[in-house]
């Protein structure tokens, strides 16, 4: 089995695992909207991105589609990853501001504003409903049509499908069907009132969250004591 390292933790992962599978096995939290363990991976929402480093080079990939490989080093919450996720959730909220799921994620990630023109759509085109209909319900009653700005999910030729059994599987698995508490016509694009998370300060000093991998204070940002030379221990750790 390939040996990989995720956030400093070494693990032997089965060859058929993805990076997201390995992270979930370790209990590491990676946000995702278009992933479901009972369906094939899509990698559409991009929220599950991580930073991988190989041979001194790094790149951003979707963890739900990237297979584990020998010697792979993964960072699930580096500055680069966290900043990219915030931009992605901004885009998703602008696409569908009425979704409580998206609003909660935005609040949890510390997103304070949306800098993109809101579209007020009712779909983020993650493809979960299409895969659910095809793979679990064996219906194939819906699919993607058109491209770009005109992309949508519908039945063939926009007519009632004889293959649809009205099972409700598409509604059940949709990550944005739960409406905000203000209803279907909220006055603001970004709410941020449903989730009040304490944002870690690790990224102000370090390149990656570390408190989640050990005892409180391991990252150094929680330490306020002085060392023997009356130096701030956070600065000592940062410079070392």
Structural overview:
This protein is an alpha+beta fold. It folds into 4 domains: about 1-75, Ubiquitin-like (UB roll), CATH 3.10.20; about 80-120 and about 180-195, no CATH class; about 125-175, Alpha-Beta Plaits (2-Layer Sandwich); about 200-240, no CATH class. About 20% of the residues lie in helices and about 10% in strands. It has helices at about 20-25, 80-95, 100-110, 130-135, 170-175, 235-240, and strands at about 5, 10, 50-55, 55-60, 75, 145, 150-155. It has a 5-stranded mixed sheet, sandwiched between helices. Strands 6-7 form a two-stranded antiparallel ribbon. A hairpin with a 2-residue loop joins strand 3 and strand 4 (about 55-60). Helix 2 (about 80-95) runs antiparallel to helix 3 (about 100-110). The chain is globular and about 50 Å long.
Can you summarize this structure?
With 240 residues, this protein is of the alpha+beta class. The chain contains 6 helices and 7 strands, in the order E-E-H-E-E-E-H-H-H-E-E-H-H. The chain folds into 4 domains: 77 residues, Ubiquitin-like (UB roll), CATH 3.10.20.740; 59 residues, no CATH class; 48 residues, Alpha-Beta Plaits, CATH 3.30.70.20; 41 residues, no CATH class.
Low-confidence stretches: 223-227, 233-240
Order of helices and strands: EEHEEEHHHEEHH
> Judging from the principal axes of the Cα atoms, what is the shape?
globular
Q: How are the strands of the biggest sheet laid out side by side?
A: 2-1-5-3-4
Distance between the termini: 34 Å
CATH C-level label of the largest domain? Alpha Beta
- The average pLDDT is 84
Structural class: alpha+beta
């Amino acid at each position: 089995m390939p040996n990989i390292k995720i956030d400093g933790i070494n693990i032997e992962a089965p060859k058929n695992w993805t990076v997201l599978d390995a992270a979930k096995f370790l209990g590491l939290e990676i946000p995702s909207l278009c992933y479901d363990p009972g369906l094939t991976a899509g990698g559409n929402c991009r929220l599950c991105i991580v930073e991988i480093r190989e041979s001194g080079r790094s790149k951003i990939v979707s963890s739900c589609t990237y297979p584990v490989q020998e010697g792979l080093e993964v960072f699930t919450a580096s500055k680069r990853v966290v900043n990219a996720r915030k931009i992605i959730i901004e885009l998703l909220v602008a696409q569908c501001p009425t979704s409580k799921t998206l609003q909660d994620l935005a609040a949890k990630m510390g997103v304070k504003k949306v800098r993109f023109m809101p579209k007020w759509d009712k779909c983020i085109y993650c493809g979960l409903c299409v895969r659910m209909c095809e793979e679990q319900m064996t219906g194939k009653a819906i699919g993607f049509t058109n491209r770009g700005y005109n992309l949508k999910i519908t039945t063939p030729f926009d007519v009632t499908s004889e293959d649809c059994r009205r099972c409700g599987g598409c509604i059940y698995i949709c990550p944005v069907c739960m409406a905000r508490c203000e209803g279907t016509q909220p006055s603001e694009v970004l709410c941020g009132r449903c989730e009040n998370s304490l944002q870690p300060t690790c990224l102000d000093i370090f390149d990656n969250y570390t408190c989640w991998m050990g005892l409180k204070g391991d990252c150094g940002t929680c330490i306020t004591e002085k060392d023997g030379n009356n130096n701030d221990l956070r600065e000592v750790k940062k410079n070392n």
